[in-house]
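ligand=heme C
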Amino acid sequence: MKKQLFALLFALVPFVALAAPLPEQPHSMTPDINDKESLQRGMQLYVNYCMSCHSLEHQRFSRTAEDLGIPQDLMEENLIFSSELAYNDQMHIGMQPGDSENWFGVAPPDLTLFNRIKGSDYIYSYLLGFYRDPSQPLGVNNNVLEASAMPNVLEPLQGVQEMVCAESDRPMDGAELDPLTGKYQSCEVLQVTRPGSMEPEEFEEAMYDLTNFLVYVGEPSRLQAQAMAPKVLIFIFIFGVIAYLLKREYWRDVH
Ligand code: HEC
């Protein structure tokens, strides 16, 4: 009996290890994959700013269009840029993994299942975490993924973000309390020092939409499952009533 108990405990170890949460991220977001407008905006950002490097191999344009309520002609005209890609194709990119590895040192990962690995807080924080850093080969760094090889393709939208020193009455990232002033001081504060085409709040909303879209592509069937759930419950309820009536009918003769 003891042996079996140990075996069971060992069998559970990988699940416990996998369930271990990632370290806390500087920003957090609550995804809402029922917000189709947010998903549509997210997809638009994705095909414009990310799809030149990151594929979504496990997702088809057609499936996305149906789930997000985008008509086929709109999708073909505005969201499929490569002439080699068709409506029913998977969301490939033109770049060969070998090429991109030569250019960036690391191949940009496929992002279909990325949310399942790292979670939405991570993606959201990563997208908000780029800042200018002259010590890096591309002049850019990221406060979530140190020395990230990804160029900051979002800079025209966000503006130039830099890591600066700042003071605050409240605790913040990497801050220490100065006993003289009673304020928290940190030299790891990210601040937009030259504006981009979006206001900071607007940029955060755009990154919310983009992250929301990446949550959806990781679990496209969840949208369908959610739509189906009430129907299944109604079915179970009606079936339960019928089963109960039948049971009453059968047992009437037994008593
Ligand atoms: C010019 C090519 C390029 C573009 C465009 C690009 N990326 Fe990347 N991305 C990369 C590379 C290269 C890496 C690998 C970084 C590393 O591991 O150091 C990466 C990594 C990532 C990662 C994983 C980070 C990690 O922790 O491993 C995410 C998430 C990501 N990119 C999201 C995006 C999103 C969203 C967009 C669109 C706004 C985008 N990328 C646009 C090249 C690109």
